[in-house]
């Protein structure tokens, strides 16, 4: 398509590309700065010589992170929560989503209203906290898993996908004497791999990033997940934990900033690694979600 | 199985044929209802119970007496909250940050979607989208970490730039006057790209024939934008704006809590962070539940009012 564009329009095109390029740089800048800092020599770092390229390249900060027991403890908690939490999420989402995707299910509409209502009127903070407390889950890893066991938003994404599967297929399986449970397991799931991947990643990223539940329900330092550990590392220099780091500074010749930067990057890398694979799935999800609203 | 007997017995005991048919359906498809049970139970317990639990705002909730036996005190907590000396500060901070969010954070993705839509190179567009969607997937803790490092007095990029230009380094995160700017800019940094998706979808939904007709009539790209793209985006813009107005007192606790420190309380302490400190850490459950309820009621009223205003002026509304 060749359209004659005016001088003004050509100017706009150039400015547009420039603005968007600048925006991209601004978004990437903090990431590059922290990566560079985490890989730099302490001297260069504390003398403000590091911008977006490492000065005196070395891995000392990362060695220190990976030698730290508290880090591994927090990482372990997060790992368990991501694994167990996502598994529970997927089981509940699939088994709740399957019946709700059947247009002939009696009571389908009230059930859907029941679900959607929770998206509009969100559970308030204090009563949720008291509920978890009454259930005896304070300072237990279950507090990070059970209260977020099912997401109404993801459930609706799942239902929308299941509804696109041809009902004749299920009918045929039923005629062959398959139980509904086996139909879910052997027919629905294999046909729904794209949405299963999307939802698994949605849930896993949410668990990885979650610090709110831990802030509310976890007071025991041994049960802190990675995100909360990172926050404590950044915000509270006077905890015994960071004093332990400070104590080892002399032997390792690293600055607390370098260590903090390396910890930030370690917490970011898993997201960066899966991002290219999930981007298009996530966007599909976001579009579906916007249609539902 | 127990359910089987109950379901089978129902048709005989009721006269209504419709009810009998329903019971028969439920019995025949009991597997579907059994599958539904855990999920529905989850929503009931973790979403509906806390909503009902909001009644402790009208009680003198005592953790030992529990929900059922605590004393009723009417509007005592609301009165106490409304006469709280620092209420003014809390409300002002909340409303100012919310106002900034509507003025700066809200239009950013709209503008971005428009700019992306005007790009001629699809490859460049995809690259920009890939970069700008990324921060959405990072947690607020990590975003706080980035901001913390970028603004650090000793090593931060921003202070390096200030010093290079001959200025004195500033400890931005410890200064109350910068708090709101930091909240707004980090919010835009994280969510601008992702929020643009909805507006891009709205633009994609505009019929190409409209643009063709406009071109035949001699409209340039700017005119096409004003008369076709913008009106095409309006429904999406209005719906999201209305939802934002309904949440005017919810600013995103997760973000603000991380950035807040004792030195920035004067400009950054909002209703949610106060509720967390006094409620969860201080144990004043009833008082802070009252604050939560107050927020919801105000939000709901504003939403209804804004919806009415929007319907009268633009014809768009949520319901």
| Strand composition percent of chain B | under 5%
User: Could you tell me how far the N terminus lies from the C terminus of chain B, measured between alpha carbons in angstroms?
Assistant: 45 Å
Instruction: Please state the structural category of chain B.
Output: mainly alpha
CATH superfamily of the largest domain in chain A: MetI-like
Largest sheet of chain A, in brief, is: none
The fold-level CATH name of the largest domain in chain B is MetI-like fold
Order of helices and strands of chain B: HHHEHEHHHHHHHHHHHHH
Oligomer: heterodimer
Helix fraction bin of chain A: over 70%
Instruction: Tell me the CATH architecture of the largest domain in chain A.
Output: Orthogonal Bundle
What is the CATH class designation of the largest domain in chain A? Answer: Mainly Alpha
Number of strands of chain A: 0
Transmembrane segments (chain B): 31-49, 95-119, 131-151, 194-213, 225-249, 285-306
Keywords (chain B): Membrane, Transmembrane, Transmembrane helix, Transport
Subcellular location (chain B): Cell membrane; Membrane
Membrane topology (chain B): Multi-pass membrane protein
